[in-house]
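INTERNAL AUDIT FORM
Audit reference: QA-55
Scope: verify that the stored structure record matches its stored sequence.
Auditor: D.O.
Record contents follow.
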Amino acid sequence: VGTGAVAHLHARAVAAHPRAELVAVTNQTRSKADEFAAQWTDAEGVAPAVYDTLDELLQAERPDVVLICTPPGVHREQTVAAFAAGAHVVVEKPPAPSLDELDEMRAAAAAAGRRLAVVFQQRTGTAAAHVRHLLQSGALGRPLLAVCQTLWYRDEEYFAVPWRGKWETEGGGTTLGHGIHQLDLLGFLLGDWSSVQGRLWRLDRETQTEDASTATITFAGGVVAQVVTSAVSPRQTSSIRIDTQKATVTVDHLYGHGHENWLITPAPGFESGADAWAFPSVEERSDHAPLLRDVFDALLGGHELPPTADEPARSFELVAAIYASAAADGALVTPA
């Protein structure tokens, strides 16, 4: 549902899975849907069916899974419709413009007995899984301090798209649209958060929403994190640094990471243990493909969603807390 750039990543993942088939597509603009379908024919050269509306698609095809790749303002409506038709849903981030709408989506999933997976592909890859295990097992000692940066550059042309930069249609600015990926990875590595203090800034873009934000986040395990998110930074980077009692873990990338993007630096006196922290010999990079593969496998096997696709609310709650704190002049916000 939706045939923009990110939909091609979903289609590629479907094509790579031995038990998945792209049966139908729909888009607000029919010509774009036709063009997309023509690019994703199956092995016999048959293109997926094209429908003018989601309702028509759901009624005609009764799909097992609906992949939602549209702007966030319509995610709730489309997700609820898919659940009502008996489908599982995989929805792009951000899953909704508000926590209330996400709660409605989760309630609809529960009522239908279906699964709701949110695409946060930065969780995937063998490096992230390895570091998460090291942190959770205590191999690196207790995590103490973290820095999370999403410093991207989006020019005026980017914000000229009608739904971008507006609270009503995008739900937020760069914190929600861009920074949520690294915030999600940070939460994936460190677990539940306990407090947030945030500020929003509109420094250079003519938008309703922020083009930069800053925040201090504390986690239940005691970690203190500094977070900076920007859409006005010419030298772009997506990075996380976690200082533990025994080492510093860093990942520096832009839109995806592999082993080469990660580094574990032992603290003085702990060099001898560093060999035990080595990354696995077989590498899988972060991407949509492993996330959707694992979601499809879980659905086919009747299992719970994998860790890379569960906890859909955690990172969204973090973003909402930053917005709530900023609206209250930087007041401390804690989980409800």
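Auditor finding: record pair retrieved intact. The chain has two domains: 5-119, 123-267+311-327.
Action required: none
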